[in-house]
Q: What sequence folds into this?
């Protein structure tokens, strides 16, 4: 059988109108993957649209083609003969679940991702949970098909890797990850620019908010698990936006001698968002996330629960 890399490339080549979709609340890897695919679509002169349910955060404005990603669903889904989902662990993260599951016979779905498999919705699936980022999976796809990696593609691949590994901090960073990153530098990727935009972008207020989350850290002695929270009021007061809040959980997970951490924060829609992190080899926090209808990776995962946070004598509770 033809290998999956070639099958996917052939499917792209024979398709006439392509919809690229990445997950809601997009992170660097999601957006870099979409931008990389836009670059490929343009080089193949393929009619396409790139869609993301939420607008890309401003900090990613440096990515090539980012301005072409739309968040308005002002397209006719029936007009696409190929849909490519990028970095979406499950169909729900595309925010096009109804359209995808009710698709016509002539519409194919390709899923390219590095999350553990949640559901089976694609006709062709390129999934590698060992890859540090979806852009690492895309790199393998490009190589297998001998597609030239130009400067734009190199910047996308490296952005996905740096943001999904917190600059090579997370254990998902493999020898291959570092080798790819190094090759991307040779091909013209600008590591300092990526880091300036994705990491050194915190405002004073958001730093103070991070401080609040740190100062509230507690360790549960029964489970040896650390926790912290931020309320909606605190987040609103600080003026920090959603993107500035990302990363707090990753930072807290630098705490030594615990099995893992949980970070809870209230969101404006009456939902509490939970982030789980661990740096221990023998712990898979995605099992807990999935129990709570969430998902993600063994070392970094999350969930959402309706409710709000209330302080009790023994800690915090979601009510
Ligand atoms: Mn990713």
A:
């Amino acid at each position: 059988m033809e290998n999956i890399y070639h099958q996917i490339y052939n499917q792209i080549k024979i398709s006439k109108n392509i919809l690229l979709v990445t997950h809601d609340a997009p992170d660097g890897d999601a957006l870099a993957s979409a931008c990389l695919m836009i670059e490929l679509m343009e080089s193949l002169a393929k009619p396409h649209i790139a869609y993301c349910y939420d607008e890309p955060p401003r900090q990613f404005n440096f990515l090539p083609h980012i301005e072409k990603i739309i968040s308005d669903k002002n397209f006719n889904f029936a007009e696409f003969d190929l849909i490519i989902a990028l970095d979406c662990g499950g169909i729900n993260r595309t925010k096009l679940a109804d359209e995808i599951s009710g698709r016509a016979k002539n519409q194919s779905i390709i899923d390219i991702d590095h999350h553990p498999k949640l559901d089976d919705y694609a006709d062709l699936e390129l999934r590698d949970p060992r890859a540090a980022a979806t852009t690492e999976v895309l790199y393998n796809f490009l190589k297998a098909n001998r597609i030239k990696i130009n400067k734009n593609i190199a910047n996308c691949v490296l952005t996905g890797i740096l943001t999904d590994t917190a600059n090579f901090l997370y254990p998902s960073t493999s020898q291959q990850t570092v080798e790819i990153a190094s090759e991307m530098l040779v091909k013209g990727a600008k590591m300092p620019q990526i880091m300036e935009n994705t990491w050194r972008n915190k405002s004073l207020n958001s730093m103070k908010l991070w401080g609040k989350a740190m100062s509230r850290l507690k360790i549960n002695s029964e489970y040896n698990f650390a926790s912290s929270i931020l309320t909606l009021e605190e987040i609103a007061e600080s003026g920090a936006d959603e993107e500035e809040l990302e990363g707090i959980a990753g930072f807290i997970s630098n705490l030594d001698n615990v099995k893992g951490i949980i970070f809870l924060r209230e969101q404006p829609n009456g939902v509490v968002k939970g982030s789980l992190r661990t740096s221990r080899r023998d712990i898979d926090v995605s099992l807990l996330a999935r129990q709570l209808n969430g998902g993600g990776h063994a070392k970094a995962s999350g969930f959402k629960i309706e409710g709000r946070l209330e302080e009790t004598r023994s800690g915090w509770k979601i009510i």
Observations:
- The radius of gyration is 20 Å.
